[in-house]
Specification:
The chain has 103 residues and is mostly helical. It has three helices and no strands.
Length: 103
């Protein structure tokens, strides 16, 4: 994670703000790469293609993100929408990986 950026409350210029956002975006993409690695593992482990989509687990993941957002005083509805997109994209990725590993 990025340690040398100016904390948000200490920023006095848009250059500092933009540098912080850009650094965090790099960190977020790195974390997404790790998350998608787990999707590859799930695709490898799940015995049936039908097991990839698990609506109960999807709801749990989104609820967990919303709870964490609330803990950080973030807008829960925005985080919920972001996680909906993230989880659906993850499912699509996992399905493609599942198909590819069994082709």
């Amino acid at each position: 994670m990025t340690d040398n950026m100016t904390p948000p409350d200490d920023c006095t210029t848009m250059t500092e703000v933009r540098a912080g956002v850009d650094a965090l975006d790099r960190d977020l993409v790195s974390l997404l790469a790790r998350r998608f690695g787990y999707m590859r593992a799930a695709a490898r482990i799940k015995p049936a293609r039908e097991a990839v989509r698990d609506e109960g687990r999807k709801a749990e993941v989104i609820a967990n993100a919303v709870a964490e957002a609330r803990r950080h005083d973030l807008p829960a509805h925005i985080v919920a929408a972001m996680w909906e997109t993230l989880v659906e994209g993850s499912i699509a990725y996992e399905l493609a990986e599942w198909d590819e590993t069994r082709a």
